[in-house]
Design a protein that fits this description.
Elements: H1 5-22, E1 31-33, E2 36-39, H2 53-65, E3 76-78, E4 98-100, E5 120-122, H3 132-135, E6 142-144, E7 164-166, H4 169-173
Parallel strand pairs: 3-4, 4-5, 5-6, 6-7
Antiparallel strand pairs: 1-2
């Protein structure tokens, strides 16, 4: 039984490529053999554009910092004091459980209703007006809305019993 040089080369090359591709430094590259892609690296940080550039910048950086390849890999985010005004597009981060957005200029929370796994949310020092969309999130356990001077205070019967809620002073006084 004779083995040709080509068969031997392929027999050695394929296992070698498997070993090389498994190295963390090489996982960013595509590998081709005779113009045929034998390994295609996962494209990291592929997110849909967000309406707010500050939010997009923060979330993209978190993906890099946490070495997450997909939006669904990110389970916690801190984008405090980032100049964020709009949240449209954040709904693609469906695995978020903890989200800190303190000290921004956020007013509308409706899009956050789509983050069904969200358990902790900090929105203190923003311009939030209506907290009701957040009170509908059944997974939410902690919500900080302190220092939102325009907040319409929720009625006691609108607040789920399982939610630890921090409200602005004007709500606590009424």
């Amino acid at each position: 039984m004779s083995v040709s040089l080509t068969e031997l080369a392929i027999g050695l090359l394929v296992p070698s490529l498997v070993v090389l591709v498994s190295c963390s430094q090489l996982s960013e590259y595509d590998v081709t053999l005779n113009n045929v892609t034998v390994y295609e690296a996962e494209r990291p940080n592929q997110i849909q554009p967000l309406e707010d550039a500050a939010l997009e910048t923060c979330l993209r950086q978190l993906l890099v910092d946490q070495r997450a390849n997909r939006t669904t890999d990110l389970t916690s985010a801190n984008c405090s004091d980032a100049g964020i005004r709009y949240l449209a597009g954040i709904e693609q981060f469906t695995a978020l459980r903890s989200l800190k957005l303190s000290g921004n200029a956020i007013r509308n929370l409706v899009v956050l209703e789509r983050l069904e796994q969200l358990e902790q949310l900090w929105l203190d020092r923003n311009d939030v007006v209506d907290p009701i969309p957040m009170l509908r999130l059944t997974s939410l356990r902690e919500l900080d809305l302190r220092n939102n001077p325009l907040l319409q205070c929720p009625e006691a019967d609108e607040i789920p019993l399982t939610l630890q809620l921090s409200l602005p002073e004007h709500c606590e006084a009424s």
